[in-house]
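Amino Acid Chain and Its Fold in Token Form
===========================================
What this section holds: a protein sequence and its matching fold, both as plain text.
Structure line: whole-number tokens from a learned vocabulary of local backbone shapes, matched to residues.
Purpose: to set a sequence beside its fold so the mapping can be learned.
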Amino acid sequence: MTKEQERARAKRRYARQQAAASARAVERRRNGQVAVIVAVVLGIVGAFILLSRELRDDTPPAATSSASSGSSASQTASATPSLAAGCTTPPAAPGTEGKLSLPEAGDIAAVTGKSVVATIKTTCGPIELTLDGAKAPTTVASFVQLAQLGYWKEAPCHRLTRQGIFVLQCGDPTGTGSGNPGYGYGIENAPADGKYPRGTVAMARTTDPQSNGGQYFIVYQDSELPTDGGGYSIFGTVTSGMDIVDRIAAGGVGADRVAPKFPISTLVVTTETKD
């Protein structure tokens, strides 16, 4: 089987995973709608019972706390999100992880020493990156592969930090912050001083230095990150679209104190390797 056939096969497999996840999401929404209808009917029945007993309660209904936690609060927030200027309502997160393999040596060699232009089309507009294949060839090759396979389709940016470290984190189709493409690799081009200037694009990881995968972050204000464990791989910079990141950051975090209040999701990512 040729490399192109393997890649096409991987893309079809991932497409099937996304289709299955979409079907499950539709089923969850349908179940949620049924639950709402049942609740409304029960409420009406209860009102008639109260009226028939000539009971009266002048106490106003309690307001739902926006700070409450749990799945119901998250579903309410996702159903009617606050949007930043120029943004559209994001789709539901696919909820899938990848079952992919690290790019082959030939794919890494294809970007080594080269510059790659990546365009992330989001629900708030395009963000353009320039990726550095000279300093982070494995990371850039992985980014190109995931873009070509559609791994980030409808994936939300699930995390915003606003104290000490100022980043918007994206790249997880599960929307939980724990998803990965099925492989990991080591750190490249991490600054020894831990300084990450505004506009830097770097890989997110766990405490495991070999856990670089599909999640990345965009620095919207100069930040200093811990160097313990090797730091975080810088593999590119934002060349246009930082105004979009700024608008998302300006909204702060939502009720869960993790995700941005103004949601933003990836729709498609394209890449072009330059000589």
Remarks:
- The chain has a mean pLDDT of 83.
- The beta strands are 115-122, 125-132, 159-160, 167-170, 195-196, 200-203, 216-219, 223-224, 234-240, 266-274.
- The longest strand covers residues 266-274.
